[in-house]
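Title: Comparing notes on inverse folding

I've been comparing how different people in this forum approach sequence design from structure. To keep things fair, I'm posting one structure and asking everyone to reply with a full sequence. Here's the target:
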């Protein structure tokens, strides 16, 4: 059974995604994550985000990543 507990680096990425949403009203792009953490490649940032998604901690839209469950909450508020 896979763990849902993020590694220290994944927790930092998750915190960044959450803060970005709070500050800007939308999630960061993978490129934003790459730049913020100084990853040498886009793939490194994407791999961290995919690992968080696999653990159910983030979800993706076509342009950004966001904390899991956030879009459902927004849709419920709009209803």
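Reply #1:
Here's my take.
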């Amino acid at each position: 059974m896979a763990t849902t507990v993020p590694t220290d680096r994944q927790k930092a990425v998750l915190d960044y995604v959450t803060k970005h949403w709070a500050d800007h009203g939308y999630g960061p792009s993978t490129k934003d994550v790459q730049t913020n953490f100084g990853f040498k490649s886009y793939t490194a940032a994407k791999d961290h985000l995919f690992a968080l998604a696999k653990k159910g901690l983030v979800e993706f839209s076509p342009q950004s990543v966001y904390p899991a469950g956030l879009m459902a909450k927004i849709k419920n508020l709009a209803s």
